[in-house]
Amino acid sequence: MKPTHKSYFVRIFMLAKIILMIASTALLLSGVLFLLIAYVEYTITAPSHLTLVVETSVKALYRWLAEFGLITLSPSIALSLIEVISRLRHDSLSNLWRSIYLTLSFQRFLHQRERNEISLDKQTKQAMNPILKDFNKAARRCVIDITNKQTIAFIKVPQSQQAHKILKEMTEQIKEELSSHNPQYYFSAPERIKNTLWYIGTKRD
Questions:
Q1: Would strands 185-187 and 196-203 be described as parallel, antiparallel, or unpaired?
Q2: Global pTM?
Q3: How far is CA 40 from CA 37, 48, 52, in A?
Q4: What does residue 189 show for φ and ψ, rounded to 5 degrees?
Q5: 111-144 residue pLDDT tens
Q6: Helical H segments across 48-156, by residue range
């Protein structure tokens, strides 16, 4: 079956993930600053003028990070709630959880870890191969959407020809990986549409 459009889950997954990461980082930093402020107030009984100025600045930063984290988190929650409601009405929450878990797992499966060593002024440093960097950038955008009727694996095709070759060589491995995690679905050959690659799994009778 040829995919006609991206599902809502495929369209919002990466956006919700990025927003959640930004919000979580901001909230984590605000939590660290809160503990630091509490520690300073507990240990310093007679703060100097400089200490008070620094403490005021840190408190302002703490409040800003907390507010920014909560405000940023709101769109991610709203996007997720729409998908949750849709799953409750037309599918199941277990499929939503499996979609999230397998998407993250599949992104790790595609990730290439080889690095090149380069010498600069008699010092050896490791640098990511630019071809693999391009491939990994595309791999981070792959999404797997599991429903009661079918499973869709959406993969972004890398821009460079060499990275595209790596993806092409992994075609059978990808199909095997998808089949092993979804044995109740039959996966056909991948369908190339512009700069995307689609694997469609149809539920077995």
A1: antiparallel
A2: 0.80
A3: 5, 12, 10
A4: -65, 150
A5: 888 755 555 555 555 566 788 889 999 999 999 9
A6: 49-90, 93-110, 130-139
